[in-house]
Design brief:
The chain is of the alpha/beta class. The protein has eight helices and seven strands. It binds S-adenosyl-L-homocysteine (SAH), 3,4-dihydroxybenzoic acid (DHB) and magnesium ion.
């Protein structure tokens, strides 16, 4: 696969379209220094999340899967004054790194990290949220989608990361729980009249994967 070319193109476009961003760079450095895996969304994808949140006019955002707070910062920056973001994270260590990164971004009053299994903590939340970013354990995507719908309103946007998985999405014999998760999600959306959705395949510095964007009717 042309992974070098994909990364070079990401570098070219972000170099032109994104001003240098010491806060986001610092969030990635601190995540690396803290031993977190390098699996945050790419800069291009982070910017897309911010643009989607602005397009949706989001005032309340729910993120599932915080890691070091890189996507959290992109999303929180889209919020207007008084807007709020809640991010659900299983790992206390990831949450600690994320909170420090969020504080360094000046967003502590906007973005809150809640520690615990998101499959449970999501059930304690009160909706509606205007935008959901589902990016935690992939086997649980169907559960997160079901709960996102419960916590949504007509017009809410649901974005799901890592749904193509180098094409493994279409392997109907896969036993990989992650693949089963993204396949089940597509079946659920197909059977759900409340959702209007598309899956976009992506290549870039994060390899070959994809995003699902679903609008609640
Ligand atoms: N959204 C982040 C990346 C998230 S990586 C970004 O783009 O910057 C996935 C995160 O989900 C990891 O931090 C992992 O600890 C967390 N996670 C995995 N299973 C989880 C669960 N059951 N509940 C909450 N968080 C979970
Ligand atoms: C993994 C998780 C992600 O959210 C991602 O974007 C890439 C990889 C993972 O758990 O391996
Ligand atoms: Mg992801």
């Amino acid at each position: 696969m042309e992974t070098k070319l994909w990364s070079d193109v990401d570098e070219y476009t972000t170099g032109l379209l994104f001003p240098k961003d010491p806060v986001l760079d610092a969030a990635l450095s601190a995540s690396e220094a803290g031993g977190l895996p390098p699996i945050a969304v790419s800069p291009s994808q982070g910017k897309l999340l911010m643009l989607l949140a602005r397009l949706a006019g989001a005032k309340r955002i729910l993120e599932i899967g915080t890691l070091g707070g890189y996507s959290t910062i992109w999303l929180a920056r889209a919020l207007p004054t008084g807007g709020r973001l809640i991010s659900l994270e299983y790992s206390e260590k990831h949450a600690e790194v994320a909170r420090a990164n969020i504080a360094h971004a000046g967003l502590s009053d906007v973005a809150e990290v809640r520690v615990g299994d998101a499959g449970e903590t999501i059930q304690q939340l009160e909706g509606p949220f205007d935008l959901f970013f589902i990016d935690a354990d992939k086997k649980s995507i169907p559960h997160y989608l079901e709960w996102s719908l419960k916590l949504s309103r007509p017009g809410s946007l649901i974005v799901v990361d890592n749904v193509v998985r180098e094409g493994a999405l279409i392997d109907d014999r896969s036993k990989d729980p992650n693949v089963l998760g993204v396949r089940r999600m597509h079946d659920m959306i197909a059977a759900e009249p409340r959702l209007s959705a598309t899956t976009i395949q992506t290549v870039g510095s994060k390899g070959y994967d994809g995003l699902t964007v679903a609008l609640v009717n």
